[in-house]
Every structure is written in structure tokens, then in C-alpha cells.
Design a protein that fits this description.
The chain has 649 residues and is of the alpha+beta class. Helix content is 46%, strand content 18%. It folds into three domains: 54-232, Immunoglobulin-like; 256-439, no CATH class; 540-647, 3-Layer(aba) Sandwich (Glutaredoxin), CATH 3.40.30. It contains 20 helices and 20 strands. A hairpin with a 6-residue loop joins strand 7 (124-128) and strand 8 (135-140). Helix 7 (331-349) runs antiparallel to helix 13 (440-469), helix 10 (392-399) runs antiparallel to helix 11 (404-427) and helix 18 runs parallel beside helix 20 (638-647). The N and C termini lie far apart (62 Å). Mean pLDDT is 77; it is low at 1-49, 221-230 and 356-365.
Length: 649
């Protein structure tokens, strides 16, 4: 190890950054390829086309009906072997309450009919090992027919109508499950003066129907198999709440715009902060030629967009991939990211020189090449995945339940939104030009930025090691925060010392920067004390059994989905959940605070996250004593949480 001159460190910075960026890209690509090869869902399938092991059809007992008349609709799920769909909600064992039940109902668009009691098909008991030990799960296999009695409302005018049936289900085999799906099946119907039944061949399917359900018709819109939320997406960010219906063209365009806005906000999350020093240095060098700087910005944006497209394809096409931040649930990936960032940081500080064979440099593109810019964009996008920006989480979660092309379109919108700010900064690099380009001040700037980046690398490295040393549902340790804050403290002291030495003790600018450095050092120590404090909440680590016990005891449950690699999660927990108002409401004992930690792979926790209808964290979900979801948000305030907790007291 040897200190180098400024010009030498600048070249070192390029080589280190490019070398590790190249291998980061290769690692991510290989991971996706291996996932696809090991995925039954992707085997022999186009990534844009999920396997379709379930075919749904519906037929009506009547081919014409009249106001006040009653008839039956048969809904058939033709399920290919070896797949099955889960039983209804009241049939699933408590140990597997995170599974998505099969739900059948009239869609909201069919408001001219009233639904009666649903007759379910016979379920088969299947021993499954999702939790490690065999559990008997009632499932539907083969051809399963649901019978839904309906009655025509008295005020319906004569004419042609559609009966829209909503079917929500989750297809599984004995080892894994596909993403939940909601399908709408339409049956055309004529409303006239009298009811006319279908032909005898069509009526054969109704031989197993219990006619008492039609003769003693009882309206039921609250059956345990009722599905909800077909095309409606609810957004809630810090109290700003609205919804969009993605089933129409206008609603879909609105969703894409919201997803794009959420992607842009990802750049403001703590997860993307580690790349800011690299971004500044890149703009600084490309600012010398505006045209080339713009082209490099375009290619960097393509790298960001390309990664999010790949992520959308993976979620749409790979059965083992269901969450945006799933990469970071593999501790070795997190450790690898930490090593890469630390190496980049040390190279930026100019503390060592790595000499590699010439052939290596021929295949590792430099940062000022188009290929190098694409790789830099990919790394930026990878670092954004641990966090969720406001509005982005709900859009991504909804898209994961839609057809593959819709999923990919929404993820492309998120990537576009995240890439736009980098494109704008490349088009207007005036700010980067104002950075000192030579001399001791320039070297000091690089060193401080490099130390901040080193702290980020230490964070990911420590979190990854914590994940390796912890078995879910246990909560990982917090020791890595002292490592992070120690480096930031050193950066603050170094800024103070070097500012005085370079500027002299009598120059106001030097004194100002020295004070800033001391504040940075003191703030880092305070931050370390705060973040390593367990906090005032006595968390219960989530397991299905603990969740069920809380419900049995008549307790409401507040579930915090979090991970040590999710900086947004840590900020919300400390700033909102640890607030005195929220803590006081939790101390009454009427609401159980439960934590789902996804620092490392946690199948039970991930299943509950999927059941909550999300693919990203942070997320806070509050259930009442009956298990009904009463609050859900990825960007919440003290006022919102305390209001809901207060209503449950």
C-alpha cells in the first residue's frame, strides 16, 4: 500500500471503479440466469409468458333471464397436474395463513345481480412442507367447479349484459408457488320478459349443484371466498391518499406516471446516497465536453432502465423471484456489494494502486465509455432496490399480480423515472464544473467523498455478515452501525484538520469548514448511539404461530416489515414508531408490535408480505383483533399511525 499523487489516484479511481462495476454486472446477470434455470416456472417458457396451469371458464344455467329471476353460474377451474390452488380462507391451517386463498365472487362491474351463497367443490388434503415439516393443506386439483347462485335485481332494464366473475387464486406445486392472480371471466346474458334455461347438454354441469341454495336464496356478498381489489390501486404517502383503476386505458396511463414519479423519488432515498460521490466525480470529468457528457448520461440512464426492466421480467417470469429487494435477502450478495463499494471508496481516496494485466483492462470498459456508463447505471439501480420510494411500492405490488406485459411496463416506468434526473444532470453539468479540478482542495474533496462511500460499503458489508450470522425470525445485531459511524466520525475530523491546515487558522472559509467537520463528527457519534439503541418498543419477531396466538388472545397486531439493509425502514422506525405518542399507545398492551425482518431469506415473512399485497419494503400493516387489515402504508406519519392505534384501544 502506498500513497499516490493526485493524478495517479484519479487513474486508479477509474480502474478500480470499472473493474468492480464490470464484475458486479456479471454477478447480477449470472444470478438472474441461474434463477431462471432453476425455476420450474421459467423452464421452457418465454420470460414474458408465465405458465398457465389453470384455465378458468364459466357457464350460466340460463341463456335469458328476467328481473327478479334466479339462476346459477358454474365456474370451472381446470388445474393441470402437478399444480393445485389453495383452499378457501377458512380452510387454510393457521400455520399457513400467509397463503393466498381461492376466492370467487361477482366482480364490482356486475352490479345488476345479487350473489347468493357459493357452493365450493370438494377439497383434497395435500401434505406440504413449506414450513419445513409436513402440514395438511386443503387444495383444489384437477377440474374444480364452483356454483354461484345469483338473482337479477328488480329494476334491471331489458337488454344485453355481461356477468363478470372475479376469481383470485394462487397456483402451487409441492415445492413453490406462483404469484397470486386475479382473473375476470365474462358470461354474456340477455335480460328479457321471462327466463329461458340453457340446453340439456349445458345443464349437465349443474347435476352436482345443491338446489336448496337457489330455492332458499340468501344474499351473500361477504363470503369467505370473496375477492377484493381487482384493478384498483390505492396509494398512500405520508397522508396523501388516492386510488387509480388500472383496468382502463386512462387509469393505466395514470399508474405509469405515478410509477415513474415514484422511481424518480428513489434518488432521494438513503439507499442511493452511496453513489452520489461517484456520480459527482463522473459529472466532473464529463463536464469538460458537454456533448459527450450528455451521451454518457443517456447510456447511464439506459443502464438504470435496463436493470429495472430485467427486474420486471424476473418478477413476471421467475417463480423464485417475487420481491424487488430480494437480491439483498441473500447475505452473500449484500457482502459482495459491500466489498465492491469499499474498494471503490479506497480507490477514490487514492490510498492504493491496483495493477492488473493489460488484457483485463481491455475487457473492463472505462467510466467515460458508453459501456462503462451503462455499468455505472446498473450499479446505481442495484443500490436503489433495498428502499421503496413513495408511490412506487403500491404500483410495483399491483403490477406483480397482472399479466407479464403490464408488470414489465410498470417496472420500465419506475426505471425511467429513476433515470431521468441523471439524464438532466448530464445535460446541465454546470454544477460539476464548479468543483475544484486540481490541487490539495480537490484531493480533500475526493478523500471526504471517498470516506463517506467507505461508510456505505461498511454498512452493506456489516449487514451482510449479520444476515449470515442470524437465523430468521431472530433479529440481526446492530454492531455494524458503530463501524459506519466510526468512519463518518473520522471523515469529519479529517475535514476539520485538513481545512485548518490548508486554509490557515485565520481564514473564515477554513474555520467554517472545520466547524462543519466537527459537527459531522459529533453528529456521527450521536447517530451511532441512537441507531444501536434497541428502542422503546418490545418487538415480537413474527412467526405464523405468534400471529395466530395474538389473534386468539383478541389482540390487534402492528406488523413492521423491515430489514437491516433497508435504510428507509430504519428511518421510519426511529422517527415514527419510536415517537412518544406511538409508544404510549403500544404500552397499553391492546396492540402487539410484531416485526418481520427480511435481512436474510425469511420464507414465512416474505409470504406474509406477499399476502399483504406488496413486493417492497418498508411496509407497516395494522390488523384489528379479528385479523382485518385496517392500515397499510410504506410512507407513514406519526399522526396516521397513532390515529389507527388509538381506534383499537
Amino acid at each position: 500500500m502506498a500513497f499516490t499523487t493526485e493524478s495517479q489516484s484519479y487513474g486508479v479511481q477509474d480502474r478500480v471503479r470499472n473493474h468492480f462495476s464490470f464484475y458486479l454486472c456479471v454477478t447480477v446477470t449470472l444470478w438472474l440466469i441461474l434463477s431462471s434455470l432453476n425455476s420450474p416456472k421459467a423452464n421452457a417458457q418465454n420470460l414474458f409468458a408465465q405458465p398457465q396451469p389453470v384455465k378458468i371458464s364459466a357457464v350460466s344455467m340460463a341463456k335469458q333471464t328476467a328481473p327478479g329471476s334466479k339462476f346459477v353460474i358454474a365456474i370451472t377451474l381446470d388445474i393441470q397436474k402437478p399444480w393445485h390452488v389453495n383452499g378457501a380462507a377458512d380452510m387454510i391451517p393457521s400455520e399457513l395463513n400467509y397463503l393466498i386463498p381461492t376466492q370467487v365472487k361477482l366482480a364490482d362491474s356486475t352490479d345488476w345481480l345479487t350473489a347468493g351463497q357459493l357452493q365450493r367443490p370438494e377439497a383434497h388434503v395435500l401434505p406440504v412442507t413449506y414450513t419445513g415439516s409436513p402440514i395438511d393443506l386443503p387444495v383444489y386439483e384437477g377440474k374444480s367447479v364452483f356454483y354461484l347462485p345469483v338473482m337479477v335485481n328488480e329494476n334491471v332494464a331489458a337488454g344485453q349484459y355481461n356477468i363478470d366473475i372475479s376469481v383470485r387464486y394462487q397456483t402451487c406445486d409441492d415445492k413453490s408457488c406462483l404469484a397470486p392472480k386475479t382473473e375476470i371471466i365474462s358470461v354474456p346474458m340477455t335480460v328479457g320478459d321471462s327466463q329461458v334455461f340453457a340446453d340439456a347438454q349445458t345443464l349437465d354441469i349443474f347435476n352436482s349443484f345443491d338446489t336448496d341454495l337457489l330455492e332458499n336464496f340468501t344474499a351473500s356478498n361477504t363470503d369467505s371466498t370473496v375477492a377484493t381489489g381487482d384493478g384498483k390501486v390505492v396509494f398512500d404517502a405520508f397522508g396523501l391518499s388516492f386510488s387509480l383503476d388500472g383496468s382502463g386505458l386512462g387509469g393505466m396511463l395514470g399508474l405509469l406516471l405515478v410509477a415513474m414519479f415514484g422511481g424518480a423519488l428513489l434518488n432521494l432515498t438513503p439507499c442511493v446516497l452511496p453513489v452520489i460521490p461517484l456520480k459527482i466525480m463522473l459529472l466532473h470529468k464529463s463536464a469538460q465536453t458537454r456533448g459527450k457528457g450528455l451521451l454518457l448520461g443517456i447510456f447511464m440512464s439506459l443502464g438504470v432502465l435496463g436493470f429495472w426492466l430485467a427486474l420486471g421480467i424476473a418478477i413476471a417470469g421467475l417463480s423464485g423471484f417475487s420481491e424487488v429487494n430480494q437480491l439483498f435477502q441473500y447475505p452473500m450478495f449484500t457482502v459482495g456489494m459491500g466489498v465492491v463499494i469499499c474498494a471503490l471508496a479506497i480507490g477514490m481516496c487514492g490510498l492504493f494502486d491496483i495493477k492488473l494485466p493489460t488484457k483485463v483492462y481491455n475487457v473492463t470498459p472505462k467510466h467515460d465509455t458508453f459501456a462503462g456508463s451503462v455499468l455505472f447505471g446498473i450499479m446505481t439501480a442495484v443500490l436503489s432496490t433495498p428502499c421503496t420510494g413513495p408511490f412506487m411500492g403500491a404500483a410495483a405490488a399491483w403490477s406483480a399480480t397482472q399479466p407479464p406485459l403490464v408488470t414489465v411496463a410498470v417496472f420500465a416506468a419506475i426505471g425511467t423515472g429513476m433515470a431521468i434526473p441523471y439524464l438532466i444532470l448530464s445535460a446541465f453539468p454546470a454544477l460539476a464544473k464548479k468543483m475544484p479540478s486540481a490541487g490539495p482542495v480537490s484531493l480533500l474533496v475526493k478523500q471526504i467523498l471517498g470516506l463517506c462511500l467507505l461508510a456505505a460499503g461498511a454498512y452493506f458489508l456489516g449487514v451482510g455478515l449479520n444476515g449470515l450470522l442470524t437465523t430468521p425470525p431472530d433479529e440481526p445485531g446492530l454492531w455494524h452501525w458503530w463501524l459506519v459511524c466510526g468512519i463518518l466520525t473520522a471523515a469529519g475530523f479529517w475535514l476539520a484538520i485538513r481545512s485548518i491546515k490548508l486554509g490557515g487558522p485565520k481564514r473564515p472559509a477554513a474555520i467554517t469548514w472545520a466547524i462543519i467537520g466537527l459537527i459531522m463528527a459529533g453528529g456521527s457519534i450521536a447517530m451511532g448511539r441512537s441507531l444501536t439503541d434497541k428502542g422503546p418498543i418490545d418487538w415480537v419477531m413474527y412467526t405464523p404461530a405468534k400471529f395466530e396466538q395474538a389473534q386468539t388472545d383478541g389482540k390487534a397486531v402492528m406488523v413492521d416489515f423491515t430489514a437491516q439493509w433497508c435504510l428507509n425502514c430504519q428511518v421510519l422506525e426511529h422517527q415514527v414508531l419510536h415517537s412518544e405518542k406511538v409508544v404510549q399507545l403500544l404500552r397499553t398492551g391492546k396492540v402487539i408490535p410484531m416485526k418481520v425482518d427480511l435481512t436474510s431469506a425469511n420464507p414465512q415473512g416474505s409470504a406474509l408480505l406477499e399476502k399483504a399485497g406488496r413486493v417492497t419494503i418498508p411496509l407497516l400493516v395494522i390488523y384489528d383483533a379479528n385479523g382485518k387489515e385496517v392500515f397499510k402504508s410504506d410512507s407513514y406519519t406519526i399522526s396516521q399511525v397513532s390515529k389507527v392505534l388509538g381506534s383499537l384501544q
